[in-house]
Amino acid sequence: MTAAGGLWRNWGRTEAVRPQRVERPASAEAVQRAVQAAASKGMRIKAVGAGHSFTGIAVAPGVQLDLEDLSGLLDVDLERGRVTLAAGTHLHQLPRLLRPHGLALENMGDIDRQTIAGATSSGTHGTGGSFGGLATQIVGLTLVTGTGELLHIDETENAELLPAARLGLGALGVIVDVTLQCVPAYLLQAVERPEPLQDALDGYLERSTREDHFEFYWFPHTETALTKTNTRLPLTADRKPLSRAGRWVDDELLANGVYRGVCALGTVAPAVIPPFSRLAQRMTGNRDFTDVSPAVFVTNRTVRFTEQEYALPREAVPGALAEVKALIERRGWRISFPIEVRSAAADDIWLSTAYGRESGYIAVHRYYREDQREYFSAVEEIMVAHEGRPHWGKLHTRDADVLRALYPRFDDFLAVRDRLDPDRRFENAYLRRVLGP
């Protein structure tokens, strides 16, 4: 990712840094040595995963720890359906690692390029009104604290730290392994349909509760939503995957190849965006297939973008999206990327965007070569008015004073931070903004 003295950039090209030093530890002990060495020189140190956060959460001006070599399956507890993974293991590696043991993740997002530690530490989630984000599947983890101590946390050992450490923003230490509660492998029946946007809004609350995994996309400049409904089935059910050619046409040729060209053209000729959006909603989003869960949850995305996402009380989502639609029409913007609407169950993780409330998510995007600031700022005002909590890994302007009011256990998290990283060894500019000094 970064050569010594080289420039590191995140995937969305919103952050860049030239670390003073880059280390690539391949063991927990090597991580300990790196943290202790940084402390002895008074340097900050940060672990970096795949760089899929759009915020500066992983920016490391001092010592950057690239965890690419800290990867793989470390342990399997078949009796309890649990696996322990090294922190740098990428989500796309999990199907191959879990398949021989008949296991799968309970829920996934639609991108699998992240590392397991990076995805959970930043609050990555999928969709499903009865299912939590990825961090809710963590039942234990091991991290190196700011003093270089190797600390294990699970339901029986240092259990009081688990609600903070499962989603710790990289502020509590360098995670070296995580233990996940898995489920028996299963199939998903995917039904993707274009529907009138108003019908999707009217049915969102009921469908988010009734269906296993429901989400929809709305292309601005249209009145159509592309709905996705995934139903969990046993592994013994009939598997009816997409043909290789069909998947390539839908997910590569149209969703990546053609779409990349239109986004690039739209930066110099915005007038092409509305007619293309109307064409796209007619050409996509109408298929029915059944496959193993990772093949349904995950979509290959190669068109680079920037993103802002807010978690709202679920009942606020339809009204908030209607306000965003009116905003786009009023301002006359040409928005090439669809708006994504998902949901998640309430959980008890202190800094989870779904802490203590059934949540819905609204995510807005822009092509990475476009200036997203005016659009994102105006949408953020709407989200804030609905008690929105920003995704930690996606662009926002909130700071510690504002966030404290949104998270009832915010100061409890800070107390754990004081305990595990008293000298702020893992601090960077983003963490100073969202957590305070």
Describe this structure in words.
The chain has 437 residues and is an alpha+beta fold. Among the domains are: 8-66, Uridine Diphospho-n-acetylenolpyruvylglucosamine Reductase, domain 2, CATH 3.30.43; 73-184, Uridine Diphospho-n-acetylenolpyruvylglucosamine Reductase, domain 3, CATH 3.30.465.10. Helices cover 31% and strands 25% of the residues. It has 13 helices and 20 strands. The protein has helices spanning 28-40, 94-98, 116-122, 162-165, 197-210, 244-268, 273-283, 293-297, 317-331, 373-385, 400-406, 410-420, 429-435, and strands at residues 8-9, 16-17, 21-23, 45-48, 63-66, 73-77, 82-86, 103-104, 138-144, 150-154, 174-181, 183-184, 186-196, 213-218, 224-234, 287-292, 305-313, 339-344, 359-367, 389-390. An eight-stranded antiparallel sheet has the order 16-13-15-14-18-19-17-20. Strands 6-7-11-9-10 form a five-stranded antiparallel sheet. It has a three-stranded parallel sheet with strand order 3-5-4, covered by helices on one side. Helix 5 runs antiparallel to helix 9 (317-331) and helix 9 (317-331) runs antiparallel to helix 10. The mean pLDDT is 93.
